[in-house]
């Protein structure tokens, strides 16, 4: 049945809307005046969401963002003060025996497919806010709905918003001209950083870039980063 709906969607929508084909007609949303998705129904059932507007400046001080580079193996996390909140991304959950996560970001759909054990562990924690996309939420509900305990914060790629046309990389600056919350690279109009995640989050090929935009929106003043290795890219992740 899903493949039938996909074909119907392709025949009734322009190519610029193709990124929605796996969501229609199962996903129903409403948006707030500020742009973010306010309510969500998936396959006829309401899905509670964290209000992104209420998250603005809800935090302060320091936060640790844990990436998954091999250098993570050399870090002594016992030195981390218990008072510092921690955001994990993807496989950073393998550090859960050393640090306590209260924030998490997963936007890689292949990770949902390849690491179901990590997904189940993260979503079963009632004290975690998980930032993910609609495609991620669909995978959680379809595969692990009975285990869902965490709070869901629905975020979007600014260039692939739900039920809105795709924004091409070379058209980002034109599409978002006049939005004061966005910061564009002076020489690269396809590189942008959002200080208001309600407009969407801009991708740069790594989940850490998404996480940085989220943490800035939350209000943290100092972001400590572990495992963001900028060399030895051929080496496997720490886990």
From TrEMBL:
A GO molecular function held by the record: transferase activity
Task: State the name under which the record lists this protein.
Answer: Sugar glycosyltransferase
Transmembrane ranges? Answer: 207-228
Q: Which organism is it from?
A: Klebsiella michiganensis
Q: Which UniProt keywords apply?
A: Membrane, Transferase, Transmembrane, Transmembrane helix
Q: Does the keyword Transmembrane helix apply?
A: yes
Q: Which domain of life is it from?
A: Bacteria
Entries under Gene3D superfamilies matching the protein: Alpha-2,3-sialyltransferase (3.90.1480.10)
């Amino acid at each position: 049945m899903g493949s039938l709906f996909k074909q119907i969607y392709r025949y009734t929508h322009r190519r610029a809307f193709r990124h929605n084909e796996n969501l229609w007609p199962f996903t129903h949303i409403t948006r707030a005046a500020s742009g973010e998705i306010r309510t969500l129904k998936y396959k006829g059932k309401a899905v509670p969401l964290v209000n992104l507007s209420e998250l603005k400046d809800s935090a302060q001080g320091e936060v640790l963002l844990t990436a998954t580079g091999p250098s993570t193996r050399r870090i002594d996390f016992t030195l981390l003060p218990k008072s510092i909140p921690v955001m994990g991304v993807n496989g950073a959950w393998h550090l859960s025996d050393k640090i306590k996560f209260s924030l998490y970001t997963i936007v890689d759909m292949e990770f949902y497919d390849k690491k179901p054990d990590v997904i189940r562990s993260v979503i079963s924690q009632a004290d975690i806010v998980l930032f993910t996309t609609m495609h991620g939420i669909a995978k959680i509900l379809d595969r692990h709905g009975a285990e869902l305990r965490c709070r869901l914060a629905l975020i979007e790629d600014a260039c692939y918003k739900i039920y809105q046309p795709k924004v091409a990389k070379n058209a980002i600056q034109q599409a978002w001209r006049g939005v004061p919350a966005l910061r564009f690279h002076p020489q690269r109009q396809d590189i942008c950083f959002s200080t208001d995640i309600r407009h969407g989050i801009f991708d740069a090929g790594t989940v850490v870039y998404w996480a940085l935009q989220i943490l800035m929106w939350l209000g943290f003043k100092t972001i400590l980063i572990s495992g963001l290795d900028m060399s030895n890219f051929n080496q496997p992740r720490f886990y």
